[in-house]
Design brief:
The protein is of the alpha+beta class. The protein has one domain. It has one helix and three strands, in the order βββα. A three-stranded antiparallel β-sheet has the order 1-2-3, covered by helices on one side. The radius of gyration is 12 Å and the shape is globular. The mean pLDDT is 91. It holds the Pfam family Lar_restr_allev.
Length: 73
């Protein structure tokens, strides 16, 4: 089972859209499928840190710590 399937994500704190957790270059981030808001990437160094990085990126998302580059900002 993919570890991202175990992690619960709230709706986007900006627009209420769906969030998707992504893995990229030894790190995880969450992005909104509607407005494009996203968290910073949480890096990991080894397999032991993978789940922790995914959970931390989800925690950032679920607490509203996101980056939004909407027009005019």
């Amino acid at each position: 089972m993919d570890i991202t399937e175990k992690i619960e994500l709230d709706d986007c704190p900006i627009c209420g859209g769906a969030g998707l957790i992504e893995e990229e270059d030894h790190g995880y981030y969450v992005a909104c499928l509607d407005c494009g808001s996203y968290t910073g990437t949480v890096s990991y160094k080894d397999e032991d840190g993978r789940l922790q990085a995914a959970e931390k990126s989800a925690m950032l998302w679920n607490t509203g710590k996101v980056i939004n580059s909407a027009p005019g900002e």
